[in-house]
Amino acid sequence: MPVNGQPTPEPMAATGTALAVPPAGEAPAVSFREALRFWIKLGFISFGGPAGQIAIMHREIVERRRWISEERFLHALNFCMLLPGPEAQQLATYIGWLMHRVRGGIAAGAFFVVPSIFILLGLSYVYAAYGNVKAIAGVLSGFKPVVVALILEAVLRIGRRTLTGRTHVLIAAAAFIAIFFFHVPFPLIVLTAGLTGLVMAKLLPEKSRSNSEAPGSEQPAISQAAPPAATLEPAPEHTVPSGRRAFRTLAVGLLLWIVPLFVLAGWRGWGSLHVSEYSFFTRAAFVTFGGAYAVLTYVSQAAVGSYAWLTQAQMVDGLALAETTPGPLIMVLQFVGFMAGWNHPQGMIPAQSAVTGALVTTYATFLPCFLFIFLGAPYVEVLRNNRHLTRALRGITASVVGVILNLGVVFALAVIWPGGLAAGADWFAALTGIAAFCVLIFLKADVVWVVLGGGVIGLARTFLS
């Protein structure tokens, strides 16, 4: 079927190898320099929280550039969904590692975060030093409904490719009901969905599954607009598990954690705020499953309650800033570290203490993310063709659609009905969100221009009203 006037190649049969060599006439192997340019760009356009960021990566890497296949993308996504921490950043790290080894993973994961570090530092300083600036409030009012549109568009995009049969649709619906109405913890939903996918695969014989699921559901469907990926090399050595490499990776990771801790303690003291931030956010990185909102719940209880680093109102404002900057939503933790240093400078200039706290928090939050990928990805690649594991992971992916839908509904309620349903709708937010959704769905507009357009509209409305 032609796409943009060009003939679309026929899908290749799955080979079962780690990475297939593209046949003659297809796109050439991807150079590290070409991939690096994309990872840098991604850091500036990755708006919309994890749902929007995963959708952007899928559109760019699978559909437009064809660097990896649909099946490989979903397999990596399933693994990242099981990890604590920001799944979108870890997915970028996984894909970068898959394409160009450790340096590719570091480049992808780091540049996913670096732009948001500096943008959020600037916004945090303006917030702390000057309070609620009218211009910033206006931009945020335009950003928020666009974020809702991005999430709902991602539900449709990912759902079309993962809900390949009645079983998966039921899993997604059950996940939405469980998390929205009964507030079931996300890790429990993931575990239940995986077990359901595995049990249903064993109970339904092959013929029955093929009748109850959409054609091609045994392999994730590759749309006609997304031909098979132009990948790099057959069965790269770095995708094969190695005990020696795993030990070396773990040793380097521990060294990268211990050395900064002792440097920080020597500078500020073991009982200082910044050492407390380093240890606390390291623990948070290991124990908080379920994405940024699960992390935020855990951190809010400690940072606002136990440590009294900032107020609940400041926590909410930080979430709004993080939601409307590129990069993972978990960057809200950098705002927490910044405000903790600003509110408790401990003999330092407030701005210096705040920047130190922000950078310490960010480093402690993201270092484990790289370690998880570089340690676990080779073993996940080996299990990629395990039929039972694949079916369990597809159940997990289906549940994620329901969880993302919950996120979109919660955001929509907060943005369009900020005072509750009884108080009436914010029609500016509603119309802006609907317009953004239509532009994304029907015009296939670039996400970054849609987000920037929402910010401009919100800013104009603020100064014209």
Describe the structure.
With 465 residues, the protein is mostly helical. It has one domain (30-218, 258-413). 72% of the residues lie in helices and 0% in strands. The chain has 17 helices and no strands. It has helices at residues 32-45, 49-64, 70-81, 87-130, 134-162, 166-181, 186-203, 206-212, 243-268, 273-287, 292-306, 312-323, 332-343, 350-382, 387-416, 427-442, 447-464. The longest helix has 44 residues, at 87-130. The N and C termini lie far apart (49 Å). The relative contact order is 0.17. Residues 1-28 and 206-235 have low confidence and may be disordered.
Low-confidence stretches: 1-28, 206-235
The DSSP helix count reads 17
Q: Tell me the structural class.
A: mainly alpha
Number of domains: 1
Total beta strand runs: 0
**C-alpha-based Rg, rounded:** 22 Å
User: Largest sheet at a glance?
Assistant: none
Task: Tell me the helix content.
Answer: over 70%
Distance between the termini: 49 Å
How large a portion of the residues is in β-strands, by DSSP E? under 5%
In one word, what is the shape? globular
**What order do the SSEs take from the amino end to the carboxyl end, as H and E?**
HHHHHHHHHHHHHHHHH
- Name the average pLDDT: 79
